[in-house]
């Protein structure tokens, strides 16, 4: 959600900023812009509504010669997506320019005060307030970074911020509060970004800013300060992936590429973590708190969106096999309750990006109340990864498509490993541990078998893509998968879809079933299979079109529908990993036939870093 790029160095800034903005397109945005410090300390800015290509057209053949600048992709919050509301924003004199991710909650109060002091505003945004506030503070403070610190102390909210000024032409100031920001350290150059993908072609050496930290970059190098203007010691870290991992590699869309990457993604998530002969999971990231984990008597999982649904599957796993009472909470609601937490409670945060604002806030609330905190995160060095007591990385490389696919199946796989780890600490037998470990190791191969059915799923998507209403039904482990299937269809094809626990159909939703309302029934041959068959019969009795997903070798279901997708047999707790892949493919192909912008769905962002 929104993207930031900044550059200070020996190269021309504009091409680097544009390249970085293109790398950030996947995050979701509706307008964009950049500002470059040119000769005579003048800053020139260009903005546009829509894609980066529109910004490039606007710049055209104009020569933007300058070695320092900042760029931004905006996802509208305060004010419509217009050129005036697009970033960067400036002060009254056009000397101070900045880009901002986040929300300034007290912007109206600050704006009213600044207007009384004579400041004139050009946009409807909360961000512009910061430019004018820094301008006002610089009347009292000599240095740009001091003015930024003073301004931020008066602002309330979240920010990832890059500021440049014609008054100090060889300086860039970056600041972070609950919105991701990192500084890339190159050879005689520095890059600032909200996401490593924007800078990884230039350097893999980065400094991750923490909340309340300010990066001051100039000809003398990089200094990190806190809001008390005191220096903070920071380590330079290394990004462990390269840009090739975010290329499409011949696939039409990132979403399709990432669906087909799932066998290798699961291999990476499992590598070195399954000890089949002993029926154990080896999870180095949580070994340091192993003894504390033995004592927990309650687990709360917090997450948002698709990660929340992974947590719901994990709830079934952990309660059935590890015997740990588990709750799954929307992170967006967690801190607005009064959650009862103690030292025997563990909070598990699940987030692909590790920067999800609501999940991060829930984590911080749990830490304040003394609970142990754990994380399942894909991005190394992300905020959640750094702030939890212990955790497990997915190790699947960047996920670019807005609709999560390989991250979701990896999260399910990691939750299965965590379940095995905790269960073997408790009552699970050696034999059961061996069986689960053996089945987990089979997941990459079994997902390949599911993907081999993609052409059949494509035909089904073509047959049904014109329908505007869908039910996805499942029970037990596949109840959250039904919701995830509906979510994927909504996200990328804009078809109305609802996921339901199949047992709830007769409590109201079945009133909608008819010849124009498609039902996608998840009916693998598991402990609730016969219950699902009863639900399918209810749909058929009302002439509802039906697609069924079941286990290979099941012929009974052919009596109810010809439209069947088969998945390989595995133990019940792992069926969600296999059953969700056909739903991902179905959503993708439906969106393809409907000519939707699959990798950049309207109104959506990849990483939701504001509430």
UniProtKB/TrEMBL annotation:
Gene Ontology annotations of biological process type: carbohydrate metabolic process; fructose 6-phosphate metabolic process; protein N-linked glycosylation; UDP-N-acetylglucosamine metabolic process
Sequence ranges assigned to domain Glutamine amidotransferase type-2 in this UniProt record: 2-220
Ranges where the SIS domain occurs: 289-428, 460-601
Active site: 2, 606
Database matches in Pfam families: GATase_6, SIS
Spans through the membrane: 573-592
EC number: 2.6.1.16
Keywords: Aminotransferase, Coiled coil, Cytoplasm, Glutamine amidotransferase, Membrane, Repeat, Transferase, Transmembrane, Transmembrane helix
Enzyme class: transferase
Coiled-coil stretches: 100-154
A GO MF label: carbohydrate derivative binding
Catalytic activity, as annotated: D-fructose 6-phosphate + L-glutamine = D-glucosamine 6-phosphate + L-glutamate
Compartmental location: Cytoplasm
Gene3D superfamilies linked: Glucose-6-phosphate isomerase like protein, domain 1 (3.40.50.10490), Glutamine Phosphoribosylpyrophosphate, subunit 1, domain 1 (3.60.20.10)
GO cellular component terms attached to this protein's record: cytosol
NCBIfam families, per database record: glmS (TIGR01135), PRK00331.1 (NF001484)
Main function: Catalyzes the first step in hexosamine metabolism, converting fructose-6P into glucosamine-6P using glutamine as a nitrogen source.
Subunit structure: Homodimer.
Identification of the protein by name: Glutamine--fructose-6-phosphate aminotransferase [isomerizing]
Species of origin: Candidatus Portnoybacteria bacterium CG11_big_fil_rev_8_21_14_0_20_40_15
Taxonomic placement: Bacteria, Candidatus Portnoyibacteriota
Gene label: glmS
């Amino acid at each position: 959600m929104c993207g930031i790029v900044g550059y200070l160095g020996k190269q021309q800034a504009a091409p680097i900023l544009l390249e970085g903005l293109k790398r950030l397109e996947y995050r979701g945005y509706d307008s964009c812009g950049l500002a470059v410090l040119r000769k005579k300390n003048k800053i020139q800015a260009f903005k546009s509504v829509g894609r980066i290509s529109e910004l490039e057209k606007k710049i055209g053949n104009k020569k933007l010669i300058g070695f320092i600048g900042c760029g931004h992709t905006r996802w509208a919050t305060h004010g419509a997506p217009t050129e005036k509301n697009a970033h960067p924003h400036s002060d009254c004199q056009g000397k101070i320019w900045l880009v901002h991710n986040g929300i300034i909650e007290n912007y109206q109060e600050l704006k009213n005060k600044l207007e009384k002091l004579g400041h004139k505003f050009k946009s409807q945004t909360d961000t512009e307030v910061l430019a004018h506030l820094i301008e006002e503070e610089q009347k009292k403070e000599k240095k740009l970074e001091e003015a930024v610190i003073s301004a931020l102390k008066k602002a309330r909210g979240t920010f990832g911020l890059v500021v440049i000024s014609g008054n100090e032409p060889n300086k860039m100031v970056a600041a972070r509060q609950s919105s991701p920001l990192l500084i890339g350290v190159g050879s005689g150059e520095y890059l600032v970004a909200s996401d490593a993908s924007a800078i990884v072609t230039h350097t893999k050496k980065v400094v991750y800013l923490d909340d309340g930290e300010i990066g001051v970059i100039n000809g003398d190098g990089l200094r990190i300060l806190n809001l008390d203007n005191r220096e903070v010691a920071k380590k330079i870290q290394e990004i462990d992936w390269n840009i090739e991992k975010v290329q499409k590699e011949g696939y039409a869309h990132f979403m399709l590429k990432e669906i087909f990457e799932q066998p290798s993604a699961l291999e990476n998530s499992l590598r070195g973590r399954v000890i089949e002969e002993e029926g154990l999971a080896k999870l180095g990231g949580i070994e340091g708190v192993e003894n504390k984990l033995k004592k927990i008597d309650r687990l709360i999982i917090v997450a948002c969106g698709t990660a929340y649904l992974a947590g719901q599957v994990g709830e079934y796993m952990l309660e059935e096999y590890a015997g740990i009472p588990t709750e799954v909470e929307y992170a967006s609601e967690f801190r607005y309750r009064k959650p009862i937490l103690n030292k025997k409670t563990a909070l598990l945060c699940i987030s692909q990006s590790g920067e999800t604002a609501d999940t991060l806030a829930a984590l911080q609330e749990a830490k304040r109340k003394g609970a142990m905190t754990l994380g399942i995160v894909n991005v190394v060095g992300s905020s959640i990864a750094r702030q939890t007591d212990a955790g497990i990385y997915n190790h699947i490389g960047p996920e670019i498509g807005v609709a999560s696919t390989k991250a979701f199946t990896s999260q399910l796989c990691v939750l299965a490993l965590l379940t095995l780890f905790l269960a073997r600490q408790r009552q699970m037998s050696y034999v059961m541990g061996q069986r689960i470990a053996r089945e987990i190791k089979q997941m990459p191969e079994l997902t390949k078998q599911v993907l081999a059915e993609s052409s059949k799923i494509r035909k089904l998507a073509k047959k049904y893509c014109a329908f505007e209403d869908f039910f996805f039904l499942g029970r037990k482990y596949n109840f959250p998968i039904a919701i995830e299937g509906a979510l994927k269809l909504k996200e990328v094809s804009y078809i109305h879809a609802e996921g339901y626990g199949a047992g709830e159909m007769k409590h109201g939703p079945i009133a909608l079933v008819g010849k124009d309302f498609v039902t996608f029934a998840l009916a693998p041959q598991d402990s609730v299979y016969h219950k699902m068959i009863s639900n399918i019969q209810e749909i058929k009795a009302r002439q509802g079109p039906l697609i069924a997903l079941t286990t290979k070798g099941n012929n009974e279901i052919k009596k109810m529908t010809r439209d069947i997708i088969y998945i390989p047999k595995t133990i019940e707790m792992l069926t969600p990993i296999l059953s969700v892949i056909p739903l991902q493919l179905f959503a993708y192909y439906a969106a393809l036939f409907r000519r939707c912008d699959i990798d950049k769905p309207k109104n959506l962002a990849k990483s939701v870093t504001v509430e």
